[in-house]
Amino acid sequence: MTRGRTDRRSLLKASLTAPLAFQTAPTATSSKDESTFGPAKLFADVKAYAEAGNKQSGGVGDRWTADWTARRLANAGFAIERQIFDVPWFDATHCELWLGDLAVPLVAQPLALATEARGLVAPLRLAETSDRLDGAIAVVRLPYRRWSSLLDRAAREPLPDALERGASAVILVTTGPTGEALLLNVPSDRPLSTKPLALLAPGRAEPVVEAARNHRVARLILAGDGGTRPAENVIGRHVRDARRWLVVSTPRSGWTDCAGERGPGIAIWLALAEWMPRAFADHSLLFVCNSGHEYENLGASHIAEKVGPAPAETAFWLHLGANVAARDYHETPNHLLPLPSADPYRFLMTSTEFVDRARQIFKGLPGLEMAYPSGEGTAGELAEIVKAGYPRHAGIFGAHRHHHAATDNLSAVAAEPLAATARALRDFLAAIILHQR
Question: Which architecture, in CATH terms, is 8-87+229-432?
Answer without folding.
Answer: 3-Layer(aba) Sandwich (3.40)
